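Hi X.,

You mentioned you wanted examples for the new student's onboarding notes, showing what a folding record looks like when two proteins sit in one file. Here is a clean example. The first protein comes first, with its sequence line followed by its structure tokens.
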Amino acid sequence: MGEMRNTLRVLWLVLFSRTCCSHLTFPLKLFAGKFNSSVDLDLTPLQKKNATSGGLSLASDPTGQVNFLDMLGNLNGDSGRGYYIEMLIGTPPQTLNILVDTGSSNFAVAGARDPYISRFFNSSLSSTYWPSGKTVSVRYTQGSWVGELGTDLISITKGTISAITINIATILSSEGFFLPGVKWQGILGLAYPVLARPDSSVTPFFNSVVRQTGIPDIFSLQMCGAGVSGGSDADAARGSLIMGGIEPLLYQGSVWYTPVKEEWYYQVEILKLEVGNQNLNLDCKQYNADKAIVDSGTTLLRLPQDVFHAVVDAIVREALIQDFSDGFWTGTKLACWMKGETPWPFFPKISIYLRAMNASQSFSITILPQLYIQPIMEVGNALECYRFGISSSSSGLVIGATVMEGFYVIFDRALSRVGFALSTCAGSSGSPVSEIAGPFSALDVSSDCVSVPVLQEPVLWIISYALMGVCAIALLVLIILLLLPCRCRRGDDPGEITDASSLVRNRFK
């Protein structure tokens, strides 16, 4: 029935579409899958050389540095639903694809059957799995899951991790987490311990790798999905996750660093946005409302609502096509052009200015339309359809895959900074789709665009429990006050506190 409906839609579009350079739109729901997903919503280091007494070994080049060449191409893209890496879990090893996510801190894998995944980790078959007896639940921007904590041995098939003991959550139930057609069966959170669930005592994956192998506390990520159609399995996106350092083959030019403002997410500071070289002229605090983070597990560039509307208005003013449906901007409709008529020349570039390590300076990362006007599917032999790769957010600004696919991104945890350089795979038809420039003066911008101290989620829990304690004490006092008058009703002494004069009684009249 679904195929028949799609066929009828194709016939309608072909019969009634104009053959000029205009576009068509139709509901995004016609394409199976959810593209605005963020699992809210990044892995591999060193290679085995000779076995050591501790069971861990790293591959090095003759100079003593880590050899990253075996890590190249260890990621695969999943049609707009993230990048994943193949991992071996347990003894004997069970092979699973794990989503790389810099926006969370738990390592979790499917531990039971799910209609949307092809396989799961059966902990009862692993002789090295040790359950902790603790339950854990995690909620993301889209989706949530509940599971059990334990530990087991982890290896990476294309990389340099072998037999590392890692905290692992086996997902026993989930809602909106595993999506139709996904090719991954778990998630690898690479953020800081403070985001780990149920609390920061659960050591995240990368922290365990650094501790057990001694590699530098840094990893870098290249995501090569620019211009790749979300509906194409034949031409799937690729990428590389380098653990322990930086691979020069994956970038060109200089690396620009911005400080990590808070070590929970990879929170950074945005100074301004430009659309087509036109400054949005918003207060910089609006860009950082709630938080601004770098998150490989988020598909789109997500903007606070007022920033999102300002960006859309600026694009509409700058674009050479004015008759777009509102549904295109909100993500409910696709825009379609005749094949061979790419829409990218009609749209402006978008620049994000980040504070540099020198606080008085900034640098810009720029994405061209090829990154945010994204090919999704073909309709028959006539049309190519695209989505808008930017969405509004109620939980802060998120630099997701829409932006990251244009850059080689370095997560230098040792020096508490995030680096950006032009990616060697960020091109479309031989033309670059991203730019980076600087330094620029930041003296005309507030010295601190993140004005409100970040209340990290564990701190919020403490405050919540404290408030619950205060309420419990207040309730106990009220109960005691309600009971006291009953105990004091003896005789007719006018000086006694009777039920008629009780403050509690009067208060509730």
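Then the second protein repeats the pattern, sequence line and then tokens:
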Amino acid sequence: MSDILDDDLELRVGTLQLTSDNANADNRRDNASDAKSSNKNKNQLNANPSVLSGADSLSSSTSSFADARAEGISNPEPRNASEPERTVYPRYDVPFNRENIKDFFTFRKGVVENAIQECITALLFPEDGEYLGSWLLTEITLWDNEKERIVLLTSRLVMTIKYDFIAMKQLDFKKTYLDDLDTIVIGELVYPPSSLVPRLNGIATGVTTVVKDCVIDRLCRRPTGNEEAKLFDPKYFEPRERNLRGVRLMWNKGEPLSLKTAWNPFSQDVPFLTFASHPIFWHKDGTLEERSMYDMETFAQKLQRAIESMPSSACCIHHSPIVIQSYLGVTSLLHNKISLGFFKVRGKFSF
């Protein structure tokens, strides 16, 4: 009888131990599955923020600032046919529309090419170094004013040229030597947290949209029910950041601006230059390569290569937001809204 009890006890202990081993194995498998899922989520969070967050992205990848638009085209992710197409690169607030952009003198065929060739012939000399490229970009001043500028890049310098595209003549130019640069920043153009510019920009854009798309359209045709509600859509008046990338060239050696320079809108001693893509970049017909003349990204890439090829250069290249120190910006808002920094047709006048 005792032998039977002992055998039964051993059988129950073995069954209990086997059940415990199976439970432990299941727990290990669950933990491994959870770990893989956690690692997968973590990898997604650590991915390039410019790809994941769209217009909310404030910086590009630190390993390379190769144009993510090209990466999105060459390496498309599989998606369902029912899913809408998503923007891969940080979205731009496309400046102007197709009709307004035709008022720019630089939109006319051959104007920019002839102006650049004239500047190269008249202003570049052998001692300026090897010619690397030329662009038509938007310069953003210390006071947040946008200005149309021709930019020439050589192995020794960056030349910024103010050019009259109506009279087709040079007005002014400035040379910045690459040896003098100590910092280059590539990233989103942002305002300080306490700036009122995004709020004012949202109000101005909302008023313009309501007047143009709603009020004027009502005078021409009878609106539908959806257009009735659009007149009072509060989204038109939401704060608007720039949602625009730029590059800043600095030679201030880390020192802050003096009060004399910071509060003088006519100062020529500002120790940095800030460029963004020209508005024509978004409206010019052709491929990205054909529109590269107006693209800040192409300029930034060639500038980086020029800096890296200089063994004596101590310039640091950062990928981070570019802060525009504008807090109220009423004058710059008016200046940029009516494009005073660009040569264009304005009704019966051109300036």
